[in-house]
Amino acid sequence: MKRILSGDVPKKDGAKVKVSGWIRKIRGSDNLRFLILRDMAGEIQLILKKGVVDEELLEKTRGITEESVIAAEGTVKINKEAPGGLEIVPEKLEILSEAEAPLPIDFTGKVNTGLDKRLDNRFLDLRNRKISAIFKIQSEICKYFREFFIKEGFTEFWPPEIIESAPEGGAELFSVEYFDRKAYMAQSPELYKELCTGTNLERVFSIAPVWRAEKHDTHKHLNEVRQMDIEVAFADQFSIMEYLEKAVKYVVKNLLKNCPEAGELNPGLEVPKVEKMSYKETVEKLKKDGFKIDFGEDLSSEAEKRLAEIYGKNTLILIHSWPRSLKPFYIMPGKSGASEGFDADLGGSELASGGQRVHRPDILEGQLKEKGLEPEEFRFFLDALKFGIPPHAGWSIGLERFTMYVCNLKNIREACMYPRDRERLTP
Asked: What pLDDT shows up at residue 377?
């Protein structure tokens, strides 16, 4: 008999079914025992009553532990008092995997377990439906992100993850041995997606992991994250911001419509409103609200939180025309010391960063030197710019940051199934 999920069990007396899953709860006595079976679709009750089922089945389940895995074949019985209004009277029952007792953590949430211990036992933590829902939502975020850009005529591409030099400069890369030479784990797909704009593709997107060897320990940083990137030929910072606004709204709108878990985890979730302002206007707004900040400073976490308090946590704040000094070498310089770069804040945290890129090799070489970087390390990219790379722009959204916002999470480690930070390399 083929296994079916608990949600597909027909509400029909006498129907023959096979179900498999984990025993969430055991109650009753030797003569009357109830097993609550959990699978990916929900839960269903099995009833074993002396005189109704074989004595062998009662004996088999006498010492069974919660979270053991079983398969059962039996007959559906309508019972309004049972979960879901029905139960199964088993005729066959097989113990597929027995769980040791006690469990290392209580994943039900009845006992408050610290995040570190939950992550140590992530295989159990994910049996909590609220926790597993985070990653169903994360999968749906990627689905709708991909769906939006395919509709917009973009092509998905997969950038290399082992690279020769730093696409964003700096020393915050993890080095690896690559045969007889040194290589690095990519901190960004930046230069590769830019080169795509000089091909017949013109508009590309990717969802890929990146690594940053930054020695931080905060609630919103990890050393391995997933990025959702786009790059567009013949675009500037303002046209590329429109893509960001539309994409974020599209994703959230579809989550609210088609993913009930999003509303359950974050009852206050709404399709974001949008505020656009220059960096200069942002600093002036913060100062007017009593926040201490000087022009030329980066926005701290406290500043991002203050902006969310001013405009609301469901407001996408697009801050354009940042000072050149605060943006990487590949962002196009603007007027009067400004750049063509922008950031996007949502829910009190930075969600995305991007802007118009430098498409001329003479400007790029000068900016590399200004940032203290060696142009020869970027020779493959500088040479490519000599052969007709158009003006182009792009941005990157952190998938885990977006998940934090959608699911109303306080720590980015909750938005990553198996997080990697300075202290955690397992499981």
From this structure: 85
